[in-house]
Design brief:
Elements: E1 33-34, E2 39-40, E3 44-51, E4 54-63, E5 78-82, E6 104-108, H1 131-146, E7 156-161, H2 163-174, E8 181-185, H3 196-207, H4 210-214, H5 249-254, E9 267-272, H6 282-300, E10 305-308, H7 325-344
Parallel strand pairs: 5-6, 5-7, 7-8, 8-9, 9-10
Antiparallel strand pairs: 1-3, 2-3, 3-4, 4-6
């Protein structure tokens, strides 16, 4: 764990001409060091940073509302959008993420298989893998210090697709003080023994079982050029995945569906298709995980927003109910106006 670095920041979001030119200046701090030139324009750009918490270089994509530079005194709520496996922030080009003129969107790198967690084993060939610390203890305060954000719980939401759906609910559960809304879009939100297929999809990504994980990934996946190399031990992230003599207790501890009570007071949204009812389609298993999370919320008497769009026939023009970006685009078109209303209230 790395303590936050105390630095003197420039006035957050100082006014800058909206001439389609350079992004706003972003000062290093909170353990993050920018190592390459900022790429993009004044309202959509990405940084490349290093951090002691996670080995390597990492992108943070930022989408500012079109009117960000018009009023230097206006502050904006922030949506933290978490990508799936094995994607990266730069590839998150959903048109819906650009539709809001009322909030900032931040897409941090979650790794091809980081699983939005501080790994149990920090001594694998991959080196430091403290993704949770990177995002919650570094990226969030870094964004608040550099941009004109509403730096409160009521000014933040966290949402994600697939692996990122797990991350979104998990982050809201471990830091309910940070987020007022959380949303899973086809998320791996049940890692209990009731959804062993999803648990072993996580394991497949860790050990580089390329054939299995390519069948359930949210991004492009070439078995001959696996994004999950080199493989690490199946226990690396959450300990033993096998439900024998409670050996899998860490998996149960981070299982979002098993701890929905931790989301009391937070707006919860869950989106899923059904893959056309085919067990060969990953969304079929995702639908089961979503159902388990819904059952938990019902048992707790908690409010939530739940959409199962089935085969996608009535969910946008291109959604087929599968585990893909066409359906997630429609999810976002439904979610973002709801987030805007929540922030406004």
């Amino acid at each position: 764990m790395v303590a936050a670095v105390a630095v003197i920041m420039p006035a957050a979001g100082s006014a800058q001409a909206a001439d389609g030119g350079a992004p706003p200046p972003m000062a290093n701090g909170f353990g993050l060091t920018q190592v390459e030139a900022v790429n993009g324009n004044a309202t959509e750009f990405y940084l490349t940073v290093t951090t002691p918490e996670v080995t390597g270089k990492h992108h943070i994509k930022i989408i500012l509302p079109p009117g960000y530079y018009d009023d230097p005194n206006r502050r904006y709520p922030v949506l933290y959008f978490l990508h799936g496996s094995p994607d990266d922030p730069i590839a998150q080009n959903y048109p819906a993420l650009r539709m809001s003129d009322r909030m900032i969107t931040v897409i941090p790198d979650g790794g091809a298989r980081g699983w939005y967690a501080n790994w149990l084993n920090q001594k694998t060939v991959l080196g430091a893998q403290n993704w949770e610390n990177f995002h919650l203890k570094q990226v969030v305060p870094f964004i608040d210090a550099n941009l004109r954000t509403v730096a409160t719980k009521n000014g933040r939401a966290v949402a994600g697709v697939s692996m990122g759906g797990f991350g979104a609910l998990h982050y809201a559960q471990v830091r309910p003080d940070l987020f007022s809304q959380t949303a899973s879009l086809s998320g791996d939100i049940d890692l209990s023994v009731k959804s062993m297929d999803l648990r072993f999809a996580v394991v497949a990504s860790l050990i580089d079982a390329t054939g299995a994980i390519c069948a359930s990934s949210s991004g492009s996946c070439d078995p001959n050029a696996s994004p999950y190399k080199p493989g690490v031990d199946s226990d690396a992230a959450f300990g033993s995945p096998y439900p024998v003599f409670n050996a899998d207790w860490r998996w149960n501890e981070v299982d979002p569906a098993g701890h929905m009570d931790k989301l009391r007071g937070i707006g919860v949204s869950i989106y899923t298709g059904d893959g056309g009812g085919s067990p060969t389609e990953p969304e079929f298993w995702i639908a089961g995980a979503a159902k388990h999370a819904k059952e938990s919320l019902d048992a707790l008497g908690m409010p939530y927003y739940y959409v199962n769009y089935g085969d996608g026939a009535a969910w946008g023009s291109n959604c087929n109910g599968g585990h893909n970006g066409w359906c997630w685009e429609q999810d976002l078109r439904d979610l973002i106006p709801r987030l805007e209303r929540s922030f406004a209230s």
